[in-house]
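With this grant's support, we have paired protein sequences with backbone structure tokens. One protein thus recorded is set out beneath this paragraph:

_____
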Amino acid sequence: MGEIRISRISAHQVQLPVKGGVYRMSMGKVISEVTTTVVHVETNTGVSGFGEVCPLGSNYLPAFAKGVIPGLEELAPQLLGHNPIELGKLNLTMDSVLKGHSFIKSPIDVACWDVFGKVVGQPLHLLLGGCYQKKLPLYFSLSSDTKEQMGSALNGARSLGYKQFQIKCIGDLEDDLERISSIMENAGPGELFIADANQGWSQLEAVRLSQLLKNYPFIIEQPCETLSACLAVRDLAVHAVKLDESVHDLESLIRAMEARAMDVVCIKISKLGGITKARQLRDLCASRGISMTIEDTWGSDIVTAALSHLAASTPAKTLLNC
């Protein structure tokens, strides 16, 4: 048998409805369904792998579902004949063919890791460093609905065993103060809460919110749009700060580390271009003792499988949740 080579790359798109009907985020973002793209990488040996990318609309990150297929049409022909398990070389090729557009490269990279695992007969978490934990700390995201609806969702998640919760805020200071207070007044022992603004607050709003809610122990996630504003919030706020949208590649992570702009960082696979690059950021954070959320935007079981293996191979001390 000759060397394994990519022989075909295909993609299929399907609509995924939101459980519960709608999901609300900051600045008026309302989502009722998303388009996910499943990518199938086939090889000359018959071994194949799957990856998936599911952007959260078109105004959350610089990614959108309608751009995936045209991007793959540009990228995929240049990858035919490449060895899918030479993942470093494969990523260099993708970056030379298509600048940026990490969300298009991600499902190809994930699919090639799937091929790699099948070729060597080992689960992905072993290839990524080993299994540190078989049970992962999950968080439940509370859509920014009414206080009553969020309280009901919180209790429902508790009944399923969740101990960590993300409070989706809307970007209005007074409303978010009331929203967070209502949730935190009902916080139980051992529970962890993260108030996620998705860049929706100004620097002043975020600092004021933290100071006004100083008696409630929660983490503030991505309060502002820019890294410099988030850094100022961390310097002045009472609460720990988590970054998500501000960290989108290795260079932005290094800048955030050097500025001491965060206490927690969100490692999203498709935001970074796949498992190969997500692993680089994961390993750097682990070596510096920085806590992480390991996840992706949205998706189906393929996305869940990929992030679960990356999370399982992350040292428990630095894995906050996924």
About this structure: The domain at 127-321 is CATH 3.20.20.120 (TIM Barrel).
